[in-house]
Structure formats: structure tokens, C-alpha cells
Predict the structure.
Amino acid sequence: MNYKKIWDKTLSINEKIEHEFSIGQGYIFWAMFLVSILCAILIFSKIIYLGFLIFLFLSFYFLFYLKIANAYAFTNKRILIHRGYLSTGVISIEYSKITDVRIYEPFIHKIFTQTGNLYINTAGTPEIEVSLYHVDNPYKLKQILDNLISKGGDQL
């Protein structure tokens, strides 16, 4: 998915997107698979309208909303996290402020969806500042982020 309109509002001068991503495809596939089974059960149980309405709503949610409402980018200067669709918010974290990045892959997600969670912490609080849930290849994302952080550190 192309998030150009989102990032054009947020990027500063001489800043460029190095890597952009969102919720993982594996997570969306399995969520839609389970939704389809649930709705098929409702439809075959003679609750046709409810099954159809739930299917339409959850299809919109998983196939469109999740991807557009959770846009993430690594730029040459910082991390950008865009959340929301109608009401939106942006979190920006400069690479120099990041103290640690953690990865957590729940067993079920690792096996079925090949997704995991990336937790980013900054100085000043012991709590996790930013959580990126259900992202594809969290270890690869951490490598990309580590490389960008080290490039940013070399420029200081």
C-alpha cells in the first residue's frame, strides 16, 4: 500500500522514507479466514443477515482499515507511526532518542501468521513507548532500524 499522502504531510525538508510497512499480510489472511468460518456458520445456521453483515464489517476492517490506519515508516532521520483513519495521530521518534528495541513473537503468530511485535523504547520512562503489532518479519525490521540508527549516529 502506498502511504505517500500520509508521509507528505509529515516529512521535513531533506527527509526521505527508507522503509514503510503496516500490519502483516499473514495476520490479515488468517483473521479473514477465521471471520469467513464464523460467518459461514452463522449463515448455515439460518442467521443469514447477521452473518452477512458481520462478514462485510470485518472484511472492511481487516482488508482496508487495519492497513490504512496503521502506517509505519523509517526515514533517514526518525520513525513515523501514523494511527487512525478519520481521526488520526502521528508519533515521531528521532533515532537518537531510542534506547532499546524489543521483539516479541507469540507462538501462534510466529507459526501461523509469521508476524510479531516490535517494541520501541526511548529515554525518560521505563514503559514501552511504541508498540507495532503484527508486523511481518520483525527481526528484519529491527535490522533495518538498527542500520538506520547507526547511520544517524555517524552523522552526529
Remarks:
- The helical segments are 4-8, 25-44, 48-69, 107-113, 138-155.
- The beta strands are 17-21, 70-75, 78-84, 88-94, 98-104, 115-122, 130-136.
